[in-house]
Write a structure and sequence with these properties.
The chain has about 450 residues and is of the alpha/beta class. The chain has 14 helices and twelve strands. The strands form two sheets. An eight-stranded mixed sheet has the order 4-3-5-1-6-7-2-8, sandwiched between helices.
Amino acid sequence: MRPNILLITADDMNYNSAGAFACPVEGITPNIDRLASEGMIFKHSHVTIAVCQPSRECLMTGRYPHNNGAPGFHPIREDVPTLQEELKKAGYMNGIVGKVSHLAPSHKFCWDYSVNTMSDEYGMGRDPKRYYEFSLEFMKKAKEENKPFFFMANSHDPHRPFVGSQQESQMFGYHTEASKYYKPDDVNVPGFLPDIPLVRQELAEYYSSVHRLDESVGAVLHALDECGFSENTLVMFLSDNGMAFPYAKTNCYLNSTKTPWVVKWPGKVKPGVKDDVNFISGIDYMPTIMEAAGIPSIDGMDGTSFLPVILGNSTDCRNNVFTVFNTTRGEKSYPMRCLQDSNYGYIYNAWSDGETVFMNESKSGLTYNAMKVAADENEQIKSRVNFFDFRVKEEFYDFENDPDALNNLFENPEYRDSIQKMKNALLEVMRKTNDPVAEQFRTECF
């Protein structure tokens, strides 16, 4: 019997914003935490690119953006096979709720059931009750037709605008509702941001949205239980990228691509396990699901199945991850490449020239603008704002001890050998994957 496949995604949630991943905010994600206790989590789990649409298209093609034709907010190439096409051939029913337009073109994803939740009627993709209703409707349909299913439930939380924020009322014309609102004193300020009042205010709004996301996760899982599918369903939860704050989303830092990846599969995956060794990436999702469903692999995927890892049968160590960034919604491109292992991370900023200013969504909120104001009187914050705006060509961090990337070690002679080793490895993977930035990297950095 083929397993059902359930993928639940958060939108712009940092890896450490869930209780199971050491978030100190009390009671923030009880449903995700319960799911984690029933399954497996990873220390080294990453998405391939830290921005919404291309991140999701990597999941569903098993390919890097430069190999699936979608480096930014673009449709994939027509000749690129998708997971949904392969599942459809195997008799699966495919369903999606939320973020529908972020898998394009739509006909390549073979949806039998599709709901665009970004509307007033459906709570702008932020109403847990709606996620329960739509999940239940789809799963009942699969039961009636006696088909295994693939279902992707995509919350719009905690994407901007955050619940209760001024940005929300400006964008929607009203405030959406949440069952819990955190206050600035309730939250922790991550190390990559300054602890100043407006940053705390925006983080409180963000964490209120995270809590509502967790309620949507619980709603989908409740529908799964109610339909009697829990025992034969491979469930995964992850976020498509980090939080929409400076030094997280739309970058290549650890806080950009690291994601809270949970895997539950009753009778197959041992509950309560944390893998501290293996690196898994967004490009590995499609080959893993295909193997779990008993579908033969196909040529052209960059990722490899981590099914042996979650089943406890792996003998190989997956010891690093290659992540990328290319462009925001506008015309300007900001190509970045990163290689991380369990200790270090090397980042190449192909766009950085000392004059070009980095533009991204994080600059629209309270945090970046509060940092700009505080920079007039605080040299440390001024330095952080300037570095975020302009960056440097090469960065190197001890991510094991400096996960917030506060200390660029690239000029430190003690790390010269480690830096060169990672640069060599990065160039090798860029060439192997036909990365169009590879030659520029070789010319500028070797």
